[in-house]
Amino acid sequence: MADPNTLISSLNIAHGSIIFLAYEGERTVAGPAFHPAGSFGKKMTMDDLIAKQMRITRQENPHCELVSFDRDAANAFQHYVNETLAFAVKRGGFMYGTVSEEGKVEVDFIYEPPQQGTERNLILLRDPDEEKLVEAIALGLGMRKVGFIFTQTISQDKKDYTMSNAEILQAVELHAEGDLKEWVTAVVKLEVNEDGGADVHFEAFQMSDMCVRLFKEGWFERDIQEEIDPKLSRMTKDVVVGGKDTREVDNDFFLVVVKIFDHQGPLSSTFPIENRKSPVTMKALKNHLDRAKGLPFVKRISDFHLLLLLARFLDVNADVPALAGCVQTQATILKDTSC
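and the corresponding structure tokens:
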């Protein structure tokens, strides 16, 4: 309006009329306030972002095609826990053998380290010096460590889990240490049969890739409280399971089933086994050799547990692999253990 004193009534402006305002100059209109934030306005840290990506899913296929147990080695292990320990306390061992290009794992002997087993826990009292001898024997035999085997006690038969959280934690720790993608974890337990009796049952698994990754990156809660459900593994941070954030993961998510076969391997398992209730003596060696007098000497010593006893008196870097190499090739053994 040219005259600011003009009355509105004289301009024919009524209620509902549209008017336009023209003015000179510029002004800045403030937009909505911007605050960097995550979903629902919550500020997210780098750990939050990582947790959102840590989704726990089942792994359908193992890295190993199958695992085959030497009949004598498997029987020697299960017979002890069944007949002597009565599955009342836990027992474990390291499995040694070979891995084929197709991913087939063959277990030819089981080394039982010093240990203390209870109804709930298995504590391995590992002896580095003894394990060096075991590795030297395996090297000479053309074998390597391929997995871990342990027993579940008879009281665990009533539980509703395949493996407990403590068993998962121990198994994945040894799997990560083994540094073998075909690494196998075997479980031996008693199962009630149709007649009401009990049968010894072997199961084999691999820890899933996600399980191994979570362990290596420190996601597993190491201090397992008794009040925690044993079928659940607790994480130190939230993970995503089934679209939900949680810190408790069903142990079955971490297990990948492996097919089991058996075979007759190159070694016997009749010599007394190390680190059991009865110590292995030189008299046991004499008795063993006397019982097999009709066999060639190399055949008489083709037993891992016997080789482990002999290895304590030999050079671990030279004599032990050489002696084991003779057993592998079934060559004639001379006094200096050269073949």
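(Above: one complete record from the training split.) Residues 90 and 186 are 13 Å apart (CA to CA).
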